[in-house]
Write a structure and sequence with these properties.
alpha/beta; about 20% helix; single chain
């Protein structure tokens, strides 16, 4: 087999953090008993995996978490972190194949939450049952549960993450929320608020998992950065290393092993998984991890690839691939930046904090459902500041907004395995994604709404910036679709794989419809809900033999 070009995750040892989180954490495996059977093995330490591990440990279960990446040193920014990530084969904008696809957010302890801006939206009621407007030619888009079912888990996570801001009545039927007072709007957001209101919009503070004020031992935001290109310097942001993993690192029921890559799941009998074959990236040795249950939290691309690599006598097409749907239905969300500049008072431009965080303090859902938009489904518009100082406008105030919208699930958009291999000798990942023409039309409509908002603000020099979402993005969904019918889905409503009773998917893979908002909080709420099912399964008498 041919090798795929790309960096090794060990290419820059200086990016690794010299300190471990606590006694439960180490890089690679040590001399711990190789024949130990864990209650749960959690694969992936990002947004969903950390939430799942936290809940399962608190339920009294013995949990092993394996993470391919390492803890990043504090000086590592997003650009450097991305150089540590393995790439994929993907189509470019002209439909040609390239080996520069992007199957990660980032590959490190805490995943993309180390660098995300903290946007923490609850999904809208429409997102759970969009079939009245979303035509996929028969592919199921209705979730197997409702917003009301997820609301209690949103509640818990908003408190744990310190979410501030959001719509005044987010949720369904007046559902309560646990969000704190919003962050103060930025200078740009104040202009956007006024422009939106002049158009009849209902702007609201972007909900952010960033403590505005000190809370439960965590610092408040000092607005020194946007948190989207560097780790939060104060610990105010709700990245999962700070909120969930660091407190677990001294717990006797928890073990965290970084620098350990999940290679494949193994089976001793039909209907369940017995072990995970791992590669210790520190020693170069492979090792088998046995557990009663396995929780997959790798992201919607990496989880699908792991299942497809897991070909056994009992699952010849890969564990969970009984319906042939593993890897199919990849959704990445469409997005685009639109920016312009306005004149501002000298004292505003002279303020040293004018370009500092948070990255977003105003959002608009007025076109989320819009009969004038093709298909009637629009998307989100929100402030999305940049913090690359050389690119900022010095003599005017920049207004930079982003629109995000769902893509139509299409089973032909998929994750697959290549004939090329990576540096570990494993099949490289293939991303075969084409944007639906209907979605291209919707994106044009929404960027037109962005231009209209900027013009209402008096902006000049309006520019567009593409995000390259079709080659992979930070919003990944749909490759292990949830549903009630095993013939048309991979997992059930609790995230359990239909054909492997002790395997659960907690990342964005499960989403039958991707929704049109930043998905992190919803993925985490699903992970919290699924953890309840995992704990119940392991407590049941029939689970004792697993």
């Amino acid at each position: 087999m041919e090798h795929l070009r790309g960096p090794s995750p060990l290419a820059n040892p200086g990016a690794r953090h010299p300190e471990l989180l606590g006694p439960a954490h180490r890089d690679g495996f040590g001399d711990e008993a190789a024949d130990r059977v864990w209650d749960v093995c959690v694969i992936g330490s990002g947004a969903s995996g950390a939430v799942a591990a936290d809940r399962l440990v608190r339920q009294g279960l013995d949990v092993l978490m394996v993470e391919e990446g390492f803890r990043l040193a504090g000086h590592v920014d997003l650009d450097e972190a991305e150089t540590l990530c393995r790439q994929a084969v993907a189509r470019d904008d002209e439909g040609n194949w390239t080996d520069e696809g992007w199957p990660w957010t980032t590959s490190n302890l805490g995943g993309g939450t180390v660098f995300y801006g903290g946007a923490s939206f609850r999904y809208q009621p429409f997102d759970f049952d969009p079939g009245s407007l979303i035509d996929t030619g028969g592919t199921e888009v209705r979730w197997p549960y409702t917003l009301a079912d997820l609301a209690p888990y949103y509640e818990v996570l908003e408190r744990r993450l310190g979410v501030c801001g959001g719509p005044p009545a987010e949720g369904s039927n007046g559902a309560r929320h646990s969000r704190g007072p919003a962050h103060e709007p930025s200078a740009a957001a104040r202009v956007l608020y006024a422009a939106g209101e002049s158009l009849g919009y209902r702007p609201f503070p972007t909900p952010l998992a960033i403590n505005r004020d000190p809370y439960e031992g965590r610092a408040g935001c000092d607005r020194v950065s946007l948190c989207v290109s560097h780790a939060c310097p104060t610990g105010a942001k709700g990245d999962v290393v700070a909120v969930f993993l660091a407190p677990l690192a001294a717990h006797p029921n928890f073990m965290l092993r970084t620098g350990v890559r999940a290679v494949r799941l193994e089976q001793d009998r039909a209907g369940e998984v017995s072990a995970l074959r791992c590669l210790d990236r520190v020693s170069g040795q492979t090792r088998e991890v046995r557990a009663r249950a396995f929780v997959l939290a790798c992201n919607a691309i990496q989880t699908a690839a792991l299942l497809l690599r897991s070909r056994t006598t009992y699952s010849p097409s890969g564990v969970g691939n009984h319906s042939g749907l593993v890897g199919r239905g990849l959704c990445v969300k469409l997005s685009e930046y639109v920016s312009g500049v306005v004149q501002a008072a000298p004292e505003v431009l002279a303020d040293p904090d004018v370009h500092k965080g948070p990255f977003s303090t105003v959002a608009f859902l007025d076109h989320y459902l819009d009969e004038d938009c093709p298909t009637g489904v629009g998307g989100l518009i929100y402030e999305s500041k940049r913090d690359r100082a050389p690119k900022l406008v010095r003599d005017a105030l920049e207004l930079r907004i982003e629109t995000i919208l769902s893509d139509h699930p299409n089973l032909d958009n998929r994750v697959g395995l290549s004939r090329y291999v990576d540096e570990d000798g494993l099949p490289a990942i293939v991303l075969d994604y084409r944007t639906d023409p209907r979605d291209q039309a919707r994106l044009r409509y929404m960027t037109g709404r962005c231009e209209r908002l900027l013009r209402a603000a008096g902006a000049n020099g309006i520019r567009h910036k593409a995000t390259g979402f079709a080659q992979g993005s930070s919003h990944l969904h749909g490759t292990c679709r949830a549903g009630d019918d095993p013939a048309r889905s991979v997992v059930d409503g609790w995230g359990r794989v239909h054909s492997a009773d002790n395997v659960y998917v907690v990342d964005g893979s499960f989403m039958p419809y991707p929704g049109g908002l930043n998905p992190t909080l919803t993925i985490q709420a699903h992970a919290l809900r699924t953890s309840k099912a995992v704990a119940s399964h392991l407590a049941a008498p029939h689970a004792a033999h697993v």
